[in-house]
Task: inverse folding
């Protein structure tokens, strides 16, 4: 049995502890400096404030101040912070990491930096001491996994990826249960582009969902035909971007892309944010009014890549004709532009 | 301007008349022998009983007895009957068809016959007089188009396919409006396999949606993670079958497959039938109790291909490992087998 340190006690970091605990691993769940109350609550009540399912008693919850203690004897680190916390996490872990300790990121995202788009595991790696960068095995897990359902032990699939493909089966084995089914992909870029971008495209699909509620709107029924075209277009654009960034389009047309986009359109924060925008509120208004404390990963992604994507389209490195919907969504989120529900404006007939 | 004969006054046959009418074509909508009341209602009230939107006054509605009159000067026939009516339609049209009159099928489906799986346009063609079979241009249109939304002129995409690719652009031009966006595919088999099978897979996704309502079920919340895995798996199986039947997997991973499956999971008859099965009723019970008059295309498809698919898997022409979900769904619909919501039973980790 392994000892596993999970850093970040959000819903996903906590949910992944359940199959690990069911597999009899020793799980140490460490909250970030923002998770103090969550850790207290888990220790007092055996429940996470945002998950219905009780936390198995063999999962030990620690505040960030006890990171050292929690990391003792760890065989694996799982990173469950949000995308804005990735550098903080890298720095916090410096004291307890070592070159033989592999890290799996649950955190998803992309970042524009130095005129390139980086996947988040690269950003994490770049924050490590130079001597460790190629030694620490970095992996990531994505796919259609709503945390509450995984925590409730409902059937869930996922995909594990990493730089060292040969290592992956042993980590899948660590996590796999009768209800949790991680598969393997060696396309790190394809997986990360999929699971990162899906949040922004799901926000876009939320806009269509909210559109009928817009004041003065003559529509009353849902716009499913438009949603279906946008869902398809989203995947086409993700496939194009995955390829341009060095991944494979096949990964997008798999559980990492299709599956994850599908589940993200079932009502998570990104989709709900889109619905608010669709009903007529700007991203900034909706953020401050409805999600003052929550990170909206699709929105964060838009801010993180907007400048670089714009530059790439101007430099000819990316074709704006291949990502019309992304460009619209960046305008909507970052610049508060309006959204026209018109297939003609983005649909290239894929 | 063209004169267009639409045979079948169901919701889709009627809805497609709206963009044609907006493009100033002369539209003659002919009900089948089952559509008599619909035609009367349209002529009396200007509305279809199952569509909210009024029928434009330049669309002329005819009962089947006036087929000859309605066919006068027709430049194009559009077939809007359901899959069970395809032979009836071919025979009825014999009197008015001629080799220069192209036919576009809205009707979707597959059929097992003579130890082969046929797409419906092939079945239609085989019912024509031998001398006409290679002369009449046969096309089909599919894609994510809920009829009510198209009739309400909401943004809708679709895909037009046919044996003679060079002809397609002129027919797209006939139909395209600011809200209706047909694209072109030369992969007739891929499109038809996608739009036919999607009904059965959507029924499967309905089962997952109905599952939490099952008596004695401990689940209370939706099973979105499972749905997302099944949605992805459905497309993988459709892609495999499209390839095996002579089409391209890329067509499945486009608007014809992804888009159409997505929209079909938003609550149509197939999905609702699945939900009933999920809640614990057999297909036959649900059909006779809730849909005594309606054809459930996904169910009809199951009966139409079950024997041939079983034979193909036994003969080794199809690999059961590539279509585990289809085999489960055939058992559920045709033989009333139970459904286990377990990713492990179908998920091959795509």
Result:
């Amino acid at each position: 049995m392994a000892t596993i340190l999970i850093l970040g006690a959000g819903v996903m970091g906590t949910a992944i502890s359940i199959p690990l605990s069911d597999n009899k691993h020793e799980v140490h769940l460490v909250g970030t400096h923002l998770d103090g109350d969550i850790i207290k609550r888990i220790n007092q009540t055996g429940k996470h404030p945002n998950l219905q399912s009780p936390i198995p008693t063999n999962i030990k919850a620690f505040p960030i101040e006890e990171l050292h203690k929690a990391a003792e004897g760890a065989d694996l680190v799982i990173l469950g912070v949000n995308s804005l916390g990735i550098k903080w996490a890298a720095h916090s872990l410096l004291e307890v990491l070592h070159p033989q300790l592999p890290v799996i990121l649950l955190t998803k995202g992309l970042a524009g930096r130095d005129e390139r788009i980086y996947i988040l595991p690269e950003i994490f790696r770049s924050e490590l001491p130079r001597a460790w960068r190629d030694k620490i095995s970095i992996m990531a897990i994505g796919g259609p996994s709503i945390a509450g359902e995984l925590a409730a032990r409902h059937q869930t699939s996922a995909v594990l990826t990493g730089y060292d493909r040969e290592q992956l089966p042993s980590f899948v084995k660590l996590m796999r249960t009768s209800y949790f089914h991680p598969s393997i992909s060696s396309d790190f870029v394809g997986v990360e582009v999929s699971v990162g971008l899906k949040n922004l495209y799901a926000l876009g699909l939320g806009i269509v969902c909210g559109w009928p509620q817009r004041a003065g709107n003559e529509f009353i029924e849902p716009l499913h035909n438009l949603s279906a075209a946008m869902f398809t277009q989203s995947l086409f654009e993700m496939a194009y971007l995955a390829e341009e960034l060095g991944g494979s389009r096949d990964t997008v047309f798999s559980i990492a892309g299709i599956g994850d986009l599908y589940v993200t359109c079932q009502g998570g924060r990104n989709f709900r944010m889109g619905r608010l925008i669709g009903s007529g509120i700007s991203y900034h208004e909706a953020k401050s009014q409805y999600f003052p404390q929550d990170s909206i990963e699709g929105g964060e992604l838009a801010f993180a890549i907007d400048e670089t994507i714009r530059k790439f389209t101007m430099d000819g490195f990316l074709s704006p004709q291949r990502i019309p919907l992304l460009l619209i969504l960046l305008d909507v989120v970052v610049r508060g532009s309006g959204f026209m529900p018109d297939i003609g404006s983005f649909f290239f007939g894929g």
Observations:
- Chain A has a mean pLDDT of 94.
- The beta strands of chain A are 3-7, 26-30, 59-62, 76-79, 103-105, 110-113, 116-119, 138-142, 156-162, 180-185.
- The longest helix of chain A spans residues 188-210.
- Chain A touches chain B through 47 residues (CB under 8 Å).
